[in-house]
Each structure stands twice: as C-alpha cells, then as structure tokens.
C-alpha cells in the first residue's frame, strides 16, 4: 500500500483491502467573478469531458506537490494558495485498484492560462457547471464545494465509466488525515 494513501481512514473493510492509486484534482477559482476554471480533456482517460486539472501522483512527490505540478502542466497556472476540499474514491467494475483522488481549490495563482496537449481550459460560472459534459459524480459533490463543506465521496461505477451503481457521500469537519 502507498504510504501516502488515506485508505485506512475510510471505515469500509472492502475499501481498505483494495490497492489504491493516488490522483489529484485542482479547481482554480476566480471568486470575484464566481468562476471556476475547467479543462476539456483532449486525450486519454476522461477524453472529451470537462474536469479540474490533475493526474497521478508521482512516487517522489507529496500529494500537494503533485497537485501543483499537474495544475501547471495542464493549465499554465502556478497555485500560490490551495485548500484541500475533498477526497473522492472511485471503484470501477472489473478494476481491482481503487482511484483515490485528492481534490483542491486553488484560491490564488500566478501565470497565464494556456491550452496544453492534454487540456483546453475554459472558465465557467460556479452555479452553471457543464455537468452533462463532466463525470457523473461531479454534480453530486459540487454542491459541497458551493456550501464550503469538505467532503468524502465513494462512488462505484460500471465498466462503461458513466453509470454509478452505488455511492456514499458525506461532509467531514476536516480532511486532516490527508
Ligand atoms: C470517475 O469520476 C471521476 N470524476 C472526476 N471528477 N474526476 C475523475 C474521475 N475519475 C478520474 N478523475 C480525475 C482524476 C485525475 O485528475 C484525472 C485522471 O488523471 P490521468 O489519468 O489523466 O492522469 P495523468 O497523470 O495526467 O495521466 P497521463 O498518463 O495521461 O499523463 O481524472
């Protein structure tokens, strides 16, 4: 088990028994204008979906370092303050490895938004998200972000990557275990 994984903090024995792969997901906010920067994924996993910016955490970095690196690589922005706002756990049918996704809000950042090989960035109103072009789970947990609540979400998905068969989503006081 990756020592950076927080799997053992989730009270679910099936979950704890699984292998986990660590990911990050960062949402840059423009609070003055109630906007969030999303990227349209241009290739690979989640192609043609809007999402925050993130990817696999490398073996040599912390989760927060991975979040900053992926944001720069995919959007051109360098986060200067980030808040860990959620933990998402995805279990895909026929995949023995759970995805452990650490979600951050970037409140301040430097640099210029650029399109990368992987992502085409676009600003959206935080109250008018393109959920029909996003992962199925996003519309479930985004309201927690709007309410300023930290959250943990477990989602079980069919192999079609679109159908949620089971979910467990709840607010937490703190993600201090992350
Ligand atoms: C299943 O539902 C999902 N919902 C949301 N909102 N985000 C998800 C979901 N499943 C995966 N993600 C996120 C987690 C990561 O931020 C990316 C996937 O990362 P990727 O596979 O693109 O990782 P990279 O390291 O960038 O990959 P490359 O090997 O292509 O560089 O999606």
Automatic annotation (TrEMBL):
PROSITE patterns: NUDIX, NUDIX_BOX. GO terms for cellular component: cytoplasm; nucleus. GO terms for molecular function: 8-oxo-7,8-dihydroguanosine triphosphate pyrophosphatase activity; dATP diphosphatase activity; metal ion binding. Residues 19-150 form the Nudix hydrolase domain. Its cofactor is Mg(2+). GO terms for biological process: DNA protection. The keyword Lipid metabolism does not apply. SUPFAM superfamilies: Nudix (SSF55811). It holds the Pfam family NUDIX. It catalyses: N(6)-methyl-dATP + H2O = N(6)-methyl-dAMP + diphosphate + H(+); 8-oxo-dGTP + H2O = 8-oxo-dGMP + diphosphate + H(+); O(6)-methyl-dGTP + H2O = O(6)-methyl-dGMP + diphosphate + H(+); N(6)-methyl-ATP + H2O = N(6)-methyl-AMP + diphosphate + H(+). This is Oxidized purine nucleoside triphosphate hydrolase.
């Amino acid at each position: 088990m990756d020592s950076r994984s927080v799997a053992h903090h989730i009270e679910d024995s099936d979950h704890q028994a699984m292998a986990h792969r660590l990911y990050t997901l960062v949402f840059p906010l423009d609070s003055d204008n109630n906007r969030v920067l999303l990227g349209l994924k241009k290739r690979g996993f989640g192609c043609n979906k809007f999402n925050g910016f993130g990817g696999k955490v490398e073996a040599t970095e912390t989760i927060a370092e991975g979040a900053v690196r992926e944001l720069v690589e995919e959007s051109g922005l360098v986060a200067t303050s980030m808040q860990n706002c959620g933990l998402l756990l995805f279990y895909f049918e026929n995949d023995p490895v759970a995805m452990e996704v650490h979600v951050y809000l970037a409140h301040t950042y430097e640099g210029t938004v650029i399109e990368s090989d992987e992502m085409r960035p676009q600003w959206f109103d935080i109250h008018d998200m393109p959920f029909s072009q996003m992962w199925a789970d996003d519309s479930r947990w985004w309201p927690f972000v709007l309410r300023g609540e930290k959250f943990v979400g477990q989602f079980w998905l069919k192999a079609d990557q679109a159908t949620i068969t089971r979910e467990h989503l709840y607010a937490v006081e703190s993600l201090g275990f992350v």
